[in-house]
Structures are given as structure tokens and as C-alpha cells.
Amino acid sequence: MLSYIKTLKKHYKTEHPYKDPFKVLISCLISQRTRDSVTYPAAERLFKRYSSPESMSKANVKTIASLIKPAGFYRQKAKRIKKIAAYVSKYGVPDSVDELLKLPGIGRKCANIVLAYGFGKPAIAVDTHVNRISKRLGLVPWNSTPNQTEQALKKMIPKRYWNDVNTLFVKHGQEICKPINPKCDYCPLRSVCSYANQKHKS
Q: Mind listing the pLDDT tens digit for each residue in 20-78?
């Protein structure tokens, strides 16, 4: 598995667009069921208008919604963003999975993303790309849940590489290992990929 990480690092950058824990948290919430091409412009509009948790907590929900539109479920997300901003303005961004999961709309994937890219703590955030690619590579069974995939990958990968997994697999999933019609012929992992080898045989 480590060799897969090192191979992908030759092709993709592993930096997250944000390093501030609050911005990582809010941008991840916006990203749910939303393309990156929509997520980050929406986040930038929001952060440009409200540069701190305090100012965002006092914002009108409709204004937040208009700034993050057309992100998926933008009205629901706007309400959650305001609540999270209010919490963070008082207590700061939580730095543990258990505490992050208590925030509205934050699941395990976003919690791990905040730990990894906001706090620099070892964490593996499993989204649809990470889960799909892990299955295609034969690293986990096809019926694995994101949580099961996360636990399996943690056992395979040294901690110092955990934070690379999400950014590398997401980039690879967006460009090569797509959900439909993956570009297996151009994949740097083709020789070790169970899915690609099976596809080639058929």
C-alpha cells in the first residue's frame, strides 16, 4: 500500500486549499454532495464576506445561503454553518473526532479532514473516491463501508502517510479512476489494480 501512495505522490500534490481549522471545517461542510469546482469558489465568497467565526455567527442565514449557492443543499448548509460558527466563536474548533461529530452536519469524513489538514494530526478521511479506489485496488472487500475502509487502511499505511490518502485518492478519482468509464489505460497503478486487470481480461 505504501508503494501506491508513493506512486501517486509523483503525479499529484497533497496540499489542501486551506490550513486554518475553521476554514477546513466550513469548506468540508460545503463540499458535501458538491463538486470541488463549486465548493471552493463558494467557500471563498463566504470567507471574503465573513472572515471570522464571530462575524459568520451573526450573519443572516439567507445571506450565507446566497453566498454558497449553488452548492448542494445550500439552504440546509447555511443553517448549519451559522450554528457551527456560533459554537466555534465561543469554544474554538474541536480537535477530536468525537467532538467534531457533535457539530451539525459533520460526519466522520469531515471530522478526519479537519484533523488532517486543519490540525496536522494523522487521520484518513474516506469519501466516495477513497472508498471506490480502495475497493478497485483490492485493498478492501466490495461491500466495505467508509468506516470499515478507514480502519483497514489505517492498518496498512504508516501514520506519517495517513494525511496523504484523501488528497491523493480524490485527485486520482477525479482525473483517472472515475466512477464510470475509468481511464485504466492511463493509470499509474494499473499493474497492481485488481479492477483494471479484471477489466483487461474481459
A: 999 999 999 999 999 999 999 999 999 999 999 999 999 999 999 999 999 999 999 99
State whether 65 and 147 are in the same domain.
no
- Residue 160's CB is within 10 A of a number of other CB atoms, namely 8
pTM, full prediction: 0.93
Per DSSP, 51 falls in state: -
Query: Helix, strand or coil for residue 128?
Result: helix
Q: What is the CATH number of the domain that holds 103?
A: 1.10.340.30
The whole-angstrom separation of Cα 125 and Cα 154 is: 11
* Boundary of a domain, candidates 118, 136, 159: 118
Gap between the Cα atoms of 6 and 178, Å rounded: 20
Would you say 3 and 164 are in contact if contact means Cβ atoms under 8 Å apart?
Answer: no
Domain shared by 55 and 29, yes or no: yes
Expressed as residue numbers, the domain containing 185 is: 2-13+125-201
User: Which DSSP symbol is given to 165?
Assistant: H
Alpha helices in the chain (DSSP H): 2-9, 21-31, 36-49, 53-57, 61-68, 74-91, 97-100, 108-113, 128-136, 146-156, 162-175, 194-201
